[in-house]
Structure formats: C-alpha cells, structure tokens
Here is the input.
Amino acid sequence: MSSRPITGSGLDNATSAGERWGLDRLVAELRVSREETHSIRKDGVIHRPPSREKLAQVVSALTEALFPRHYGQYDLDGENIDYFVGHRLSVALDLLSDQIHRAALFVGDELIPGFRPPEAVELTRRFAAELPALRGILISDLRAAFVGDPAAKSFPEILIGYPGMTAIIHHRLAHLLYGLGTRLVSRLIAEIAHARTGIDIHPGAQIGSGFFIDHGTGVVIGETAIIGDHVRIYQAVTLGARHFPTEEDGTLIKGDARHPIVEDDVVIYAGATILGRITIGRGSTIGGNVWLTHDVPANSVVTQASLRNKVGGPALQKS
Here is the structure.
C-alpha cells in the first residue's frame, strides 16, 4: 500500500480561495454594508428567524389531522383515528407555538402578539379552537371543486391532487393566524403554498365558503381583497391594486383597502386582471384576459369584446 504525503489542509485551501477571490476585501466590504451603510437590523439581541421547514411540518400535521384518512394513514379505524388526530394536533400546535414566539422575537417588537411565550401559547389555543369550523369551510371548498370541474371524478382526487385545494388549505390556516396578529408566520405559510402551487394568496385576503381555483397557476390575490361565497376563478387571474396611495413625502400608506371586492357566485375566467377597490357584483361573469378597473353591476357579463365596444368604461351585458 503506497502512501502519499499530505500536501494541503482545509486551512491551506481556504487561504488559496481567499487569494483567488479576494475574500478579505469582500468580507470587509460586506461587513461595512451590513453594519453601517445598509443596516436593516434593529439593535439588540439577535434571534433566530422562524423556520419554513418547521412551518411546512405544521401545515402537514394540521392537514393530516383535518383529513386523517386522506393525508394521514389510510388504515385508520374508529378505535385509533382519534388517537392519530390528537397526536398530529399535538405535534402541530407545539411547533406552531414555538414558531409564533420565534417570529415575534425575530421582528423584535414587544407589541407583536406572541413576543412572550405565554402569549404564543394562548394564540395557538385560540387558533386551534377554530379548526373544526375551518374544516367545515374546507369541505365547502371541496364540494365547490367537485361541482365546478367536470374533470373531477371524486373528492379524494381533488383533496390530494388539485393545486387549488392545496392552496386554499394553506390560505385558510394562514388567514386564521393573520387575524390573530401573527403576520410573519402567516406570510411564510402563504409563501410555502406559493412555492408548491404557483398560487399567490396574501393571508389577509378574506375568502368566503365554496371557493374554487381551477388549474390555478399564476393566480394572485392581494391582501385587502374580499371574496364572497361560491366564487370560481381560473389560472392567471389577478385581484390586485391599481395604485398605491402615499403620504406627502412619498411614503406608501400601508393597510388601505386597495384590492377588489368580488361578491357571491362570481366566475372569473383565465387571465383576467381586476385592479383597485372595485366591486364585481353578485352573479357576474368576467371573461378571459379582461383588464378591469371599474365596478361591475350584479348579474353582468364582461368580455374583451364588450370592453372594446364601450368608450370610457366597461360594456356590460346583463345575463
């Protein structure tokens, strides 16, 4: 067995890399940017950020608890299903409480809900108390998908295979947390859904029961959007803001209502862009690729052709 002399070490390699890339200078310049010229960190103790991986585990465990035979274990029966649900809830809620606390510490504001551990526990209790009602709303979403999509052959197919259903499960959980003031945690859960499905729903958006997103890729729903019951939308639909109000110094005014209101029983087809605090009246249909910035009366049909034929505003056909 031949032996070779050791000609280098980790330190040698690091020195070589440092010389090759000029790391000493880069590290020093980044320190100046980080600590002085472009600092974005509050002074004080540095805390760990909340973990996307842990929050993904929270959503997974909660989904298993809500739908144990579909996302959990197929062989559960009357004797062990409650034990399984209790276990998954315990795992999810323990993780969630920790992440709520961690998120508040990371932002560094003592007024943020969950900054102290007992607050995080209480918020998690309040969240958990809403889960039975939330499951009922999710069942209404599931039924809406089955009724609204001729390709859907069964509830299980929709529940585990439709990106729109995945997105709305995430959203309804995130929206509950958003309402409790845990904004960072809710935003991260929304981004987990966005990465998984291509559907971007701000957790602040208010969405009624029986909501169905068909296909879904590219859907964007803004923070202050309000969506009624039994609304169906298709891929690449945007419910966005038309403009952003500012203070006299140009600073954006945050929190103002700036996204559309979509009333009950509305259908919005693929590619439609609906902007501003406008109202789409109950029972209306918005055609594909429509660009809309005006209110729409109830029971109207808006198409590209009708918009082209109307000067100064959308042409509306009564259905």
